[in-house]
Design a protein that fits this description.
alpha/beta; Alpha-Beta Plaits; about 20% strand; binds zinc ion; binds fe (iii) ion
Length: about 775
């Protein structure tokens, strides 16, 4: 926070401007209370870019007011800047909240916030007028981003404007000191949104929903930022039915419970996990499964982790209180499509999946998936950043001279809008592979432009000529388009979140990204800063027969490595036997003829190859499945690395995985424990990367290493490599504010473009 004050101390009047997350978080009521405490007259109002305050009174009181303004701000507020200027008093006699003023400024918008403890108490208090009211909120909690259409934050610019407050609610809204004083989402059973079940039964909607769930039925539930599909998480047949209907064979489902104690019964909850679970952001937290828990096997098959979140809306609290067991709460969408938000959309989209629909009539302005985190090295790592976190901005270390839009990558897309150093990173949008997601992208982009009053002049995109994101960037019709290499964007995202402008050794371990040489990259060692990079190391290239199919069928990656040295076939025998000869032969032919068999340097594919050689997996039903299963098998058992040598090429280095894969295959043939080998594989990758990174750092005289890319969602790999590098005295930066995966790529693209544009202006 920076405090910029004029030289003269406050005398009798002061004019303040406060910037940051200061609207929709109970900030004006707080200012009002504070002014009253120090007997100051004046006013406060929301503007588009800041909160403006005028106060007047005794100088000593003004000073105290100013001091406590930043130290006592409400919990959800985040003050970034506070400007104060002395002014002449206007002889006001009272302190008031003025009407908002729309003046073209820009400011952060608060994310949605989980139900607060005070509202939770009232929800279950039989004497309270909001007893069991499914839309209870106050200035400390409830929807924000998902109801706000534009700023400044007032009810008339939210989807709550459809509900006119009744007299009782009005009274709270106007009473200084009330928890709902100026609460823009305020409502009650008389005047607020309604909940209903379709098809209707003769019971109240929540009781009826609970009964359906207990009977094993699937209910689509409209929530804050879209629909969930809910089912009894202890009922194997019900969960299997949801999988069949959603055509989602294996990808794990998240589970919701009401209390920390219930979460502890499902998985291991350390201090960091506990803090995350009960935080106001309420993300899904990956927990190590507790053996013998009540969870159905089909919730997260073949994995040792399960995603758990605590209830965050009043509807969820009421429902879980009725069913008294964990519920699967998975995104309400058809596979690969965006989450449904409208009642009619959902009924059409989910007609073949859900048995019933629990609906409400508060329109959802923004699509908002649940965020997902896991703990690695005693701190959280994002797997998906959306609800509770977006659209809070991050700062770029180098300001962009022009407003820009970084359209993001192909998969796990987010986009980033930039003005100066402010970078507004969108919530998770999804994989840009169909028209529905493209439309979701465009809707979200339009919403951000309005919310943050940003008109980009420059578009930033991935290098890949064929991606839908590349077309999106072109269609924006802006004066300039800057292409950025995928893994440079990965490294730059981590540099930018840590505010680093210096050159570093950047490691990117990833699935796929388009390389400068037209090959598939994804296990890269760069000497890089924000503006530029040089590729100084990589994984040895191998052909991936079938192209994109290789990401879904891990044996293809193994076959690609085997083609580097046919003498290695003895070690791969078990795997080769598992694939039909004809299918295998087509793949071999593809490689021989270099037909749809691109060269790849990809850590994702190396994990696949190892999984295939170890017989862990022959098919990926979702991205990264083999790698997740290997990590699950490895657990935390100690293991020695196998050989993963680095080889000098003419002007750079490469890691050769062939000896590693052969060793794994031979040990497996010799009857070694597969879980043990999975652990040894992890340590081999960590040790190999450590050795090469250390060598490159020493050669370039650099001491900072950046870890980026989707493979570092693997906690074992991230923790082991970080520890090895740190043991050498190197400084290691890993992604903490954004995900290691492609969710951070748009922010990285933005950071690179900003650095390049600013270099053009001041060379
Ligand atoms: Zn509340
Ligand atoms: Zn009311
Ligand atoms: Fe990536």
């Amino acid at each position: 926070m920076t405090i910029v004050a004029t030289r003269h101390p406050l005398r009798e009047g002061a004019r303040l401007s406060v910037r940051g997350v200061v609207q929709g978080v109970g900030f004006r009521p707080f200012v009002h209370r504070l002014a009253n405490r120090y007997h100051l007259a004046g006013w406060v109002r929301n503007a588009s870019g800041d909160v403006q305050i005028h106060v007047e009174g005794r100088p000593v009181d003004l000073a105290k007011f100013l001091q406590h303004l930043s130290t006592d701000a409400p919990p959800l507020a985040r003050i970034d800047e506070l400007h104060s200027e002395a002014c002449a008093p206007a002889n006001l006699t009272a302190f008031t909240i003025l009407e908002s003023r729309s003046d073209g400024g820009r400011q952060p918008v608060s994310p949605d916030v989980a139900l607060c403890a005070a509202c939770e108490r009232e929800l279950f208090d039989g004497s309270n007028r909001r007893h069991r009211f499914p839309f209870i909120t106050c200035t400390d909690c409830g929807p924000r981003f998902t109801v706000i259409e534009s700023m400044p934050y007032d009810r008339e610019r939210t989807s709550m404007r459809a509900f006119t407050q009744c007299d009782a609610c009005q009274r709270e809204y106007r009473t200084p000191g009330d928890r709902r004083y100026h609460s823009e989402t305020n409502s009650c059973p008389v005047c607020g949104p309604k909940l209903w079940l379709e098809p209707a039964t003769n019971r109240p909607p929540l009781e009826a929903t609970a009964q359906l769930l207990l009977e094993g039925k699937i209910v689509a539930i409209r929530g804050l930022g879209g629909f969930h599909l809910a089912v009894d998480a202890t009922n194997d047949r019900a969960v299997a039915r949801l999988r069949a209907r959603k055509e989602r064979e294996a990808k794990p489902f998240a589970v919701m419970v009401r209390t920390l104690a219930e979460a502890q019964a499902l998985g291991t909850v350390g201090d960091v996990e506990a803090a995350l679970l009960s935080s106001r952001e309420r993300p899904i937290v990956l927990l190590r499964k507790r053996p013998g828990s009540v969870l159905a096997d089909w919730v997260a098959p073949a994995l040792d982790t399960v995603g758990v979140m605590l209830a965050y809306t009043p509807v969820q609290h009421l429902l879980l209180d009725l069913v008294r067991r964990p519920l699967v709460m998975t995104s309400g969408n058809r596979s690969d499509e965006p989450i449904a938000i409208g009642n009619d959309d959902a009924k059409a989209q989910l007609a073949m999946i859900a048995d019933s629909f629990l609906l409400h009539d508060r329109e959802i302005v923004a699509r908002y998936d649940d965020s997902v985190v896991r703990v690695a090295g005693a701190a959280p790592i994002f797997l998906r950043r959306a609800r509770g976190y977006a659209p809070l901005p991050l700062r770029l270390p180098i300001a962009s001279p022009k407003p820009l839009i970084a359209v993001g990558p192909h998969l796990k897309n987010t986009f980033t809008l930039v003005h100066g150093t402010e970078a507004y990173i969108s919530q998770h949008v999804g994989d840009l592979e169909n028209l529905e997601t493209l439309e979701a992208w465009q809707t979200a982009f339009a919403a951000y432009r309005t919310l943050f009053r940003l008109e980009p002049e420059v578009a930033v995109r991935d290098l890949h000529p064929g991606y839908m994101s590349t077309r999106i960037a072109g269609d924006l019709g802006l004066e300039r388009i800057i292409p950025v290499q995928h893994h440079h964007a990965h490294v730059a995202a981590v540099l930018a979140e840590h505010g680093i402008r210096q050159r570093v050794i950047g490691i990117s371990f990833d699935g796929t990204g388009y390389g400068d040489d037209g090959n598939v990259w994804g296990a890269e060692f760069f000497e890089a800063d924000l503006a530029s990079y040089r590729r100084v190391g990589q994984l040895r290239y191998a052909r991936m027969p079938g192209g994109d199919l290789a990401a879904r069928e891990p044996w293809r990656a193994a076959l690609g490595y085997l083609a580097l040295d046919p003498d290695a076939a003895h070690a791969f025998g078990a795997m080769l036997d598992a694939v039909h000869y004809n299918v295998r032969n087509v793949a071999v032919q593809q490689m021989a003829r270099r037909l749809n068999a691109p060269l790849a340097s990809s850590m994702g594919r190396l994990f696949d190859a190892a999984g295939a050689v170890l017989g862990v997996s022959l098919a990926n039903q979702f991205e990264g499945q083999t790698a997740m299963q290997l990590e699950s098998l490895a657990g935390s058992r100690r293991a020695q690395p196998l050989p993963f040598p680095m080889i000098r090429t003419c002007d750079s280095w490469m890691l050769d995985p062939l000896p590693l894969l052969i060793a794994l295959g031979e040990l497996r043939n010799g009857g070694a424990d597969v879980a043990d080998l999975a652990a040894r594989f992890h340590e081999s990758v960590a040790a190999g990367a450590d050795q090469l990174a250390a060598q490159l750092a020493a050669g370039a005289g650099l001491t900072t290493i950046v870890l980026s890319g989707g493979c570092f969602q693997n906690a074992r790999l991230a923790v082991s490599l970080k520890a090895r590098l740190e043991a050498r005295g190197l400084r290691v930066l890993i992604p903490r504010q954004l995900s290691p995966n492609d969710g951070a790529v748009s922010f990285g693209q933005a950071a690179v473009a900003a650095a390049r544009l600013s270099r053009e202006i001041t060379p």
